[in-house]
Design goal:
This protein is an alpha/beta fold. It folds into 4 domains: 92 residues, Helix Hairpins; 336 residues, 3-Layer(aba) Sandwich (Rossmann fold); 217 residues, Rossmann fold; 131 residues, Rossmann fold. It is built from 38 helices and 32 strands. It has an 8-stranded mixed β-sheet, with helices on both faces. Strands 17-14-18-19-21-20-26 form a 7-stranded mixed β-sheet, sandwiched between helices. The structure holds thiamine diphosphate (TPP) and magnesium ion. It catalyses: N(6)-[(R)-lipoyl]-L-lysyl-[protein] + 2-oxoglutarate + H(+) = N(6)-[(R)-S(8)-succinyldihydrolipoyl]-L-lysyl-[protein] + CO2. It holds the Pfam family OxoGdeHyase_C. Its cofactor is thiamine diphosphate; Mg(2+).
Length: 1107
């Protein structure tokens, strides 16, 4: 129940005759009520209800005065002092709710002579003044002058004028000079305890209705509300020294000058300029200055397109020539497909000149997908805090910059906000800055949101919101200072809403008059912020006109010099734009050597014993009986030296922790595990919040293990873990979906970051996605993790059989964008998880995980398969009679995942163990061409079948089919105009296609073709060109960034010159084929009815297991 409501109900109860406040403090029952509601009340308690005066109740107001008088008689007005001394005071009869701020003065007796007790008018007038103060605090922002264009006002009722704030109080002119005692909820008096009404109104007007609109009275903490009131109400807070003003002017000059310079030099290039909101640059700098002063050493920023280049240039101080080089459309000196200039990240360490402290600034690279970077930034920030032992976020902080339309429109903002206060996800306060230009592309706010402000989403986490007119630099700086102090004090989020405008179209080539004619007529006439501020400072004598000009000229010179330097560059380097460098990680490593993943048997036994034991103080720690059985079963397995799924996973985690590798597992209900198999956190059955996590206590000097149930979000949490994984390569970071298909709500993290991050931004990540997958008759959902979608984004070429060598597997891993696997044994799970760290580079791992196999009696592995000398098996060959006598085998069924166990069962039932071999493809991507070929050769006379339980248009079939053909037929006609698969959606600079493998053999002088080798290849035969065929060997090299340079990798393009074939037609010249056994194509991931599911499964098993 809402706290205010509780109070009201109590008032009507038999207790109501009691003094409510005293009752609340003294009564046993109320103490119980407070305690009982403590947990929930933390989040529902409302400051408005917390303040005695909040509901306008005379009773509680008088009571507050009385209590204050009891403490210190001089703290109240003399009239109150006299009144209480007269013993006339009796407790109020009840707390009947009165509508806030609407008490008519006429409801009380006017004009009674002042005697020992104040007359009711005095009380009423004081109440009214309090109500007015409160009204300003709550609603002042509604009528503040926030919009530089004066077009938009928040869509709130009664916001037309100041009068609306105190319309219901009938003070006249004659009251204006009357002195009123100021309540404890305001700081407008400074040192003065009372002020004339006129002055009270003036001050409130200035504080709350001028260029700053503070929205904070919804916050649940009285302390926090008071803190904010003090920061804005205290007289003189907006006074800036001449030095401070000059600094603001200089920063604004740079911000404005930068955009002007780009506009001059690259007039036809998109840059998503900041014009109309240039103040964002000094604003960010102020936040960073104040935060640095308060102890922050590292700031991680996430931001969209708008003003990004300006931020890199003037906040991060990225060398201007590097920025300008991005406009030149140069070829990249390193690998990758690149990205447009307003998406790239950066990382800078530099001295903050204002605070004289070293600071690290990172802007995280982000895709077009607005706000997708938010959780990534939070994850990266959290990780940095973790590795620095910065448990309160005093050293590392994040700043998120948003567009107004995106901030309210994108759901991930809300999801990210909800991580802000969770123990394992908090970054201890983020400062959100909204570059609110009052438009989103061509859409006005009234069509893009249903809330009055674009910032309302922040209210859900009780973040104060500071709206400010972007044309008032000093107001903006004050707000930024308060925001930085707020974060440092309370370690909670807050929002700065910079209300400006957008001087140009959405980008510089867009025509805004098509859609916002009146707004743009106004903008055309509107002076820019720099000019307005310069005029102001000149007028007040802080600077001269000459100074203003010379600061601007100086910056233009700096830009010109950098521009000249940029012209001398011949290449861009993507690694200059890396946001998370891993210093030292690649150095001295053989990029083609993977460390062994097997561990000593004694390690397995040690981990197994710990994992199956109750806490050391087991006698006091009451464990659920069911869990005692789980532990006992684990112990039996350890004694027998076998592992089930949970044990295999724990062995992987435990052994990595032993080696100093931090492990973090996050996702919905991961602590227990959705399928109740994991149980990493044991809960004391009698003591609240007493838990035991054995993986945290494996070895005294182990690395930290963290397992955390997340909020019910995929998008934000997956993004968060991705960000976490970017920070340190020596950590195993895993995100588990509740069921695999739920990962599709995080699709843009998967598409835009995980699958393509390395290609676009040279950023590696070893993140593991655990996706429960398997058709078990549970209906269309909860069945498939849609592995086909991940496979479709895998970048290995279906037609390219890489050269066979000892390094085949590692080279494949090196060259691919991510790994997709579906393991069928705990041992293989163990190895593939450990391999994530054993690799000399990092690749994301998409791992289909089982459900029923978690308890399947056959899905167990002996310790010998995890101990030294064992390794991950990309393919598990048939180990039975068929495998032993391969030449007699009639059919080889290739499969992946849990269907293997159904297939073997059916084979046994049909007594076909000698006739049919079943081979498990455990690592689906990169495709094990070499091992498939080997298996096919082993069973020379057998028919080859791919069996899968997913529908034909789903599962792995569409991915494996062409690759099987490549593995089976070494020479084939390639009639498609393929190029090397690329794992970002498209190359994004105008010249990056040149980095592809055939660019160096390009002979056509046509520039379009030159930039697109695939185009040349397609038309080669028409023009009689010959395309150089590849040697089939990899002659690439490792570049400075330790990335294998694909430029020199030759493909096996064996197309005879002059033969043109229709694109998309593939013809196997010779060799064997593979056929399909499984469900037909389907629209949903699985059939809804269990009976139908079983029928279909039986059909496919019969189809696959038949000779
Ligand atoms: C998820 C997503 N949807 C759509 C777009 C296309 N888009 C790019 S900018 C933009 C308008 C953004 O408006 P706002 O957030 O106010 O930022 P502004 O451009 O005004 O700075 C849109 C719709 C996108 N980039 N991302
Ligand atoms: Mg906008």
């Amino acid at each position: 129940m809402h706290r205010a409501h509780t109070a009201f109900s109590l008032a009507l109860s038999p207790m109501a005759h009691k003094n409510f406040a005293t009752w609340l403090l003294n009564s046993n029952s109320s103490q119980k009520l407070i305690r009982a509601s403590a947990a929930s009340a933390v989040r529902t308690y409302n400051s408005a209800a917390a303040e005695p005066f909040a509901n306008g109740s005379t009773a509680s107001y008088v009571e507050e005065m009385y209590n204050a008088w009891l403490r210190d008689p001089s703290s109240v007005h003399t009239s109150w002092d006299a009144y209480f001394r007269s013993n006339s005071y009796v407790s109020p009869p009840n707390l009947a709710p009165v509508q806030a701020n609407t008490l008519p003065l006429t409801a009380f007796n006017f004009g009674g002579a002042v005697s020992a007790a104040p007359d009711s008018k005095t009380i009423d007038d004081h109440l009214a003044v309090q109500a007015i103060i409160r009204s300003y605090q709550i609603r002042g922002h509604n009528i503040a002058h926030l919009d530089p264009l004066e077009i938009n006002t928040p869509d709130l009722p009664g916001n037309s004028s100041t009068k609306s704030i105190y319309a219901n109080f009938s003070f006249g002119e004659q009251d204006m000079e009357r002195q009123f005692k100021l309540p404890s909820t305001t700081f407008i008096g400074g040192d003065e305890a009372s002020l004339p009404l006129k002055e009270i109104l003036n001050r409130l007007e200035n504080v709350y209705c001028n260029k700053i609109g503070v929205e904070f009275m919804f916050i649940n903490s009285l302390e926090q509300c008071n803190w904010i009131r003090k920061r804005f109400e205290t007289p003189g807070v907006l006074n800036f020294s001449p030095e401070e003003k000059r600094l603001i002017l200089a920063r604004l000059t740079r911000a404005t000058g930068f955009e002007a310079f780009l506009a001059k030099k690259y007039s036809s290039e998109k840059r998503f300029g900041l014009e109309g909101c240039e103040i964002m640059i000094p604003a960010l700098k102020e936040i960073i200055d104040v935060s640095t002063e308060l102890g922050v050493e590292s700031v991680i920023m996430g931001m969209p397109h708008r003003g990004r280049l300006n931020t890199l240039a003037n906040v991060c101080r990225k060398p201007l020539n590097q920025i300008f080089t991005q406009f030149a459309g140069l070829e990249a000196a390193d690998d990758g497909s690149g990205d447009v200039k307003y998406h790239l990240g950066t990382y800078i360490e530099r001295l903050n000149r204002v605070t004289n402290k070293n600071i690290r600034l990172a802007v995280v690279a982000n895709p077009s997908h607005l706000e997708a970077v938010d959780p990534v930034v939070q994850g990266k920030t959290r990780a940095e805090q973790f590795y620095r032992g910065d448990q309160e976020g005093k050293k590392v902080m994040s700043i998120l910059i948003h567009g107004d339309a995106a901030f309210c429109g994108q759901g991930v903002v809300y999801e990210t906000m909800h991580l802000s206060d969770l123990p394992d996800y908090t970054t201890h306060g983020t400062i959100h800055v909204v570059a609110n230009n009052q438009i989103g592309f061509t859409t006005d706010p009234r069509f893009s949101r249903s809330s009055p402000y674009c910032t309302d989403v922040a209210r859900v986490v009780n973040a104060p919101i500071f709206h400010v007119n972007a044309d008032d630099p000093e107001a903006v700086m004050h707000v930024c200072k308060v925001a930085a102090e707020w974060r440092a004090t309370f370690h909670k989020d807050c929002v700065i809403d910079l209300v400006g405008y957008r001087r140009n179209g959405h980008n510089e080539i867009d025509e805004p008059m098509f859609t916002q004619p009146l707004m743009y007529q106004k903008i055309r006439k509107h002076k820019n912020c720099l000019d307005l501020y310069a005029d102001k400072l000149i007028a007040e004598g802080t600077v001269t006109g000459e100074e203003v000009k010379s600061v601007a000229a100086k910056y233009e010179n700096i830009c010109e010099e950098a521009f000249a330097l940029a012209k001398t560059e011949t290449h861009v380097k993507y690694k200059d734009w890396l946001d998370s460098p891993w210093s030292g990680f690649f150095e001295g490593k053989d990029p083609l050597k993977v460390a062994p993943t097997g561990v000593k048997e004694e390690t397995l036994i040690h981990i197994g014993n710990r994992f199956s034991s109750p806490p050391p103080n087991a006698a006091e720690f009451v464990i659920h009986k069911g869990l005692m059985r789980v532990l006992a079963a684990r112990k039996t397995m350890v004694d027998e030296k076998i592992a089930d799924w949970a044990l295999g996973e724990a062995m992987a985690f435990g052994s990595l922790l032993k080696e100093g590798i931090h492990v973090r597992l996050s996702g919905q209900d991961v602590e227990r595990g959705t399928f109740s198999h994991r149980h990493h956190v044991l809960h004391h059955q009698l003591v609240d919040k007493a838990t035991y996590n054995s993986l945290q206590h494996m070895y005294p000097d182990q690395a930290p293990y963290s397992v955390s149930n997340s909020s019910l979000s995929e998008y934000a949490v997956l993004g968060f873990e991705h960000g976490y994984s970017m920070t340190n390569p020596n950590a195993l970071v895993l995100w588990e979906a509740q069921f695999g298909d739920f990962s599709n709500t995080a699709q843009s993290i998967i598409d835009q970051f995980i699958s393509s991050g390395q290609s676009k931004w040279v950023r590696q990540s070893g993140l593991v996605m655990l996706l429960p997958h398997g058709m078990e008759g549970m209906g269309p959902e909860h069945s498939s993790c849609r592995v086909e979608r991940f496979l479709q984004m895998s970048s290995d070429d279906p037609d390219y059989f890489p050269p066979e060598s000892d390094e085949f597997a590692i080279r494949q891993l090196h060259d691919i964008n991510w790994i997709v696997a579906n393991c069928t044994t705990p041992a293989n799970l163990f190895h593939i998880l450990r391999r994530q760290i054993a690799l000399p580079f990092r690749k994301p791992l998409i791992l289909c995980t089982p459900k029923s196999l978690l308890r399947h009696p056959e899905a167990k592995s002996p310790f010998s398969e995890m101990s030294e000398g064992s390794e991950f098996l990309r393919i598990i060959p048939d180990r039975g009679p068929a495998g032993d006598n391969a030449s007699n085998v009639k059919k080889v069924v290739f499969c992946t995942g849990r269907v293997y166990y159904d297939l073997t069962k059916t084979r046994a039932e049909k007594q076909l163990e000698k006739d049919i071999a079943i081979v498990r493809v455990e690592q689906v991507s990169p495709f094990p061409f070499d091992l498939v070929k080997e298996q096919a050769n082993l069973y020379k006379n057998a028919e080859l079948v791919w069996a899968q339980e997913e529908h034909k248009n789903q599962g792995c079939w569409t991915y494996v089919q062409p690759r099987f053909l490549t593995a089976l037929n070494h020479s084939r006609d390639i009639s498609q105009s393929d190029e090397q698969s690329t794992f970002s959606n498209s190359t994004s600079t105008t010249t990056t296609d040149n980095t592809n493998h055939e660019s160096d053999t390009e002979s056509d002088s046509n520039s379009d073709k030159k930039s697109k080798p695939w185009l040349s290849r397609m038309f080669a035969s028409d023009k009689g060109d010959t395309v150089t065929t590849g040697s089939g060997t990899v002659t690439g090299e490792f570049n400075a960034a330790k990335h294998f340079d694909l430029k020199n990798v030759r493909h096996d393009f064996n197309r005879p010159a002059g033969i043109a074939a229709a694109p998309g037609v593939r013809k196997a010249k010779t060799g064997r084929k593979i056929s399909y056994a499984g469900r037909a194509c389907g629209a949903s991931t699985a059939t809804g009815s269990k009976a139908q599911h079983i029928r279909e499964l039986n059909a496919l098993l019969n189809d696959a297991i038949s000779t």
